[in-house]
Specification:
This protein is an alpha+beta fold. 39% of the residues lie in helices and 17% in strands.
Length: 265
């Protein structure tokens, strides 16, 4: 730690020892045993010297001492968005990949939050994010996972599918969502009752239109009870199978959906 005073070297060592993921001046003050105002000045100084990286306004992270290029150091995107935005969970295509429901890797991390979302696409700490607003009562069906030493919530398998059926754009489009649904159905942890329960709690009946049509058309195995549950929940009106595509194509009357994309065999 050349170039640091003995005092600052000690304070930085405490941050490395006690702080995980992005942290603010209050957390640094508690770890270092100093006043928040002094901690804020120290964080700015250490970041300018390359000992810390500035993740977001007021948020910093320690840089590994062995890092050859501190300016290029990036911390886990899940930890970044949870600290910078918060009050939400990782979901969509990011959760699909986490739960092995897709092999496709997306460079952008999906995060659903109960906080206001002014811009859906954000770049924070050198990482790209796709943000969606959810109601305060809609934060259910999540699991806490550890990203290194940082706990972050991610939607569980069933909630992930329901979120992607509600808004296929965060699942990579309805074709990709259908592929993930097939992968889920082929696994050994299938719980259609939980999927239906999550759909009921979310409250968008178009979820059941898309779920029913996809399960029927792709001949999802052992889905009789699921299809019946979906039929019982179909609402009036005609929606689009993929809301991100033009409203063209034939209507599947049973499901009240316009087939504006082909799911394939």
């Amino acid at each position: 730690m050349a170039g640091l005073s003995d005092t600052n070297r000690t304070l930085l060592a405490r941050m490395h020892r006690d702080l995980d993921g992005p942290f603010d001046a209050d957390a640094a003050a508690a770890a270092a045993g100093i006043e928040p105002a002094r901690a804020a000045r120290l964080l700015r100084h250490l970041a300018a010297q390359g000992w810390l990286t500035r993740v977001h306004r007021g948020l910093y992270a320690t840089v590994p001492l062995e890092a050859e290029s501190p300016e290029d150091w990036r911390i886990d995107p899940w930890a970044v968005v949870d600290a910078a935005i918060g009050d939400g969970y990782v979901g969509g295509w990011t959760a699909l990949h986490h739960w092995d429901l897709t092999d496709q890797i997306f460079a952008t991390t999906v995060y659903l939050t109960a906080r206001p979302v002014a811009h859906r696409q954000r770049e924070i700490g050198g990482a790209r994010f796709e943000l969606r607003h959810i109601g305060g009562d809609d934060r259910f069906g999540t699991k806490r996972v550890w990203r290194g030493r940082v706990p972050v919530d991610v939607s569980d398998r069933e909630r992930t599918l329901v979120d992607c059926l509600d808004d296929p754009s965060i699942g990579g489009g309805v074709r990709h969502v259908a592929e993930a649904l097939q992968e889920y159905a082929a696994g050994d942890r299938v719980d259609w009752a939980r999927v239906v329960e999550s759909g009921d709690r979310l409250g968008n009946r178009t979820v059941f239109k898309r779920l029913g049509l996809i399960a029927e058309e792709l001949e999802v195995p052992d889905a009789d009870a699921l299809l019946q549950a979906c039929r019982e929940r179909v609402s009036s009106g005609v929606g689009r199978l993929d809301p991100g595509r033009p409203a063209e194509g034939p209507v599947a009357r049973r499901w009240g959906l316009r087939r504006n994309v082909s799911l394939g065999a």
